Records
---
Amino acid sequence: GPARASIPSVRMTIAMSLLVRLVMAWAVGYGVDEAYAVSVARPLALSYFDHPPLMFWIAGLMSWLSDGTTPFIVRLPFVWMFAGTQWAIGDITRTFFGEYASRIAVLALSVCGVLGVTSASWVLPDGPLLCASSMGVLALSRVFWPRDADSIGDMTWSATAYWWIVAGVAFGAALLSKYHAVLLLNGAGVFILSDADARRQLR
């Protein structure tokens, strides 16, 4: 009805929030944590003192490519990663709860102050963590709740292997973003070991 029609589509929410975050990335200077991350990222190294390296690698690479530390340029990958987070959350929600719930989930994520502003555009480890974690959960949902098959056993080996690889890469990136990604990974492991269909798929 009218209430449902008033919720913007997932694509519209992603596009509008992306525009807002691009403007914010251009208009607002670095915060303390961001300035620290950008300065520590130069020179690039295999590891850093207080966070896993992915955030520093991204900031360092953007600084090197642009030959500077302009906030808008360095923040661009973080802004785009949140668009990936929105898409993944929308897709997961649509799989289990339908299109209307998907619209609400993405809208709620986008207007949440911390997740939708700082984690969504600033040079912080939370952006890569959210994107990689949501992509990992999306991949596992495709493995255990296949869309084009009646059951897990009906999926082709290549399709199953593809989503397992995506999940592995995504969770690896999450662990390279922030240490507490291990909690989500452990939770996924407990689910897989406690569900009969999931255990067969794991074998």
Note: The two ends are 46 Å apart (CA to CA).
---
Amino acid sequence: MAKPLDGITVVDVTSNIAGPSATMILGDLGAEIIKIERPGRGDDARGMGPHIGGESCYFLNINRNKKSVVIDIRTTAGKELVYRLVEKADIFIENFRYGKAEQLGFGYEKLKQLNPSLIYCTISAYGQMGPEREKAGYDGLLQARTGIMSVTGVPGGPSVRAGVSILDQGSAMWAAIGILAALVQRKETGIGQRVTTSLFETGLSWIGYYLLAYQATGKEPQKMGAGHAAFAPYNEYPTADEKVLIGISNDRLFTKLAEVLGRPDWIDDPRYATNAARVQHRKVLDEEISAILKTDTAAAWLEKLHQAGVPCSQVSRIGSLLDDLQVDAVELLQPVFHPAAGDIRIPRLPFQMSASDVSVDMASPLLGQHTEQVLTEKLGLS
């Protein structure tokens, strides 16, 4: 099957996580990603451990389906090569600190003159406006700045950063969505435009519920651990061996849970009869549920809960996912061969299309692997 973005060319001067994650999405969708890297060291993500065969796991994960071209963009000759590539490209994407793209000669106004149909994307830490726009920022810093860390962690405990780079990868998604929307509009107008997003804006959008809840109550939200501010019971509970997570979002499901746990009296208990009442009395309810679940194993309880239609899950360890039947069934982990790392499996995009291919075709490139190929084919250089 053809890929949705076949024939689209992207000039990518990003590094680290957010920008490369955005071009990973476009590359998996079929766009030709020309990844411009500096001589010697390349993308900073190449140095992020651990490594497989000398290749960074970070880099391997988010730089598949790309071509690595080494160009020193600080030199006059290097700039000219990039300008010539931009003239033939559909998309240009950068994640420099505020003002750096203009200093280097790759600002939006400059590149728009070279290619009026160019879609130009900027991913930054704090956005293009405001007093903090020039500040450097990384995922953890922005999780703190946008309030995400204030609601993450166990009650009474320290603030905790989410264990994955949610703002880097979330911003990458918004960038890709904006670019795709701009491509659709360009079909009508023939003219490109600038798409901007930031980790700051992504973080604020992720906590939208809490912003509204504060407006409603005037109270700062509290850390809930594995719990949920709006529902109860909704938490991680110990069993005789492993822990399980149970999520109850309505009274019908609570009735099923009460029956499985042998406590039908809870159904008419005024403390538990409605979700609002259960939220108010969540502490004592969680203690009662924990006491019952400790009488048997996680596997035994999960089987009973699943059969009754109660939403629940084991708390998976990362290693177990590599041999997980459901992971295998959805074919999320794609096998690829890398010349240095060997045979590896990496997650494809988490969606599929009935008439388009979104598979991973090519492992991440070695530094400069495609320099000669791209400059020969695109610019006619020897």
Note: The two ends are 33 Å apart (CA to CA).
---
Amino acid sequence: KIFVCGTAEEYGLAKKPWRPLKEDYPLNPNNPYGVTKLAQEYMGRVWHASFGLNILLARPFAHEGPRRGKEFATSDFALQILAIQRGLQKPIINYGSLETVRDYMHIKDMVRLYWDILNSDFKSGEAYNICTGKETTIGELIKTYLKISGLEKKVKLELNPKLVRPTQASYLVGNPSKMNKLIKRRPKYALKDICKDMLKYWDENFEMPPVR
């Protein structure tokens, strides 16, 4: 069995009638990462069709946890909060967008689902969303961090133009029904668990957030 790990970024800009995103939604990536993953998926389809290889085409949505690069929002917010608590940053959380919607899953859940699907009777050459189906805005993500850290009423949020992406998929939330029909396991961890684990990890491995 061959596991081809794609990305939700293959969907690109999603129109409202299609939400949440199912596997048959038209693929229209709007950044280089999504384009390369789409090319990878099509190569997987070619390998399956041409040589009969047993290939799972996975489209995992946002998966977060300890050791996530600090350039990603979940780590960046955790580091900003810890920097504020240490007196190394003004009580201001910088952000690029509060309205962007994502489908967050703990990396522990994601990896277990990879394993479950690989050990199931998945249809070779077909794509499967790996996701929760739950919508979370960046604003809600920040509020969760602030609540856990006790900074809810002690900091303000500030838009930083340097953090605004020129091509940003505003909505990437998946429909997990195809995956759920295949396996019994469901995600165990909630958004608050992701935030707690991220804060714990970066507290033990603290780095200053990028200078802006």
Note: The beta strands are 2-5, 55-60, 63-64, 92-95, 101-102, 105-106, 127-130, 136-137, 156-159, 171-172.
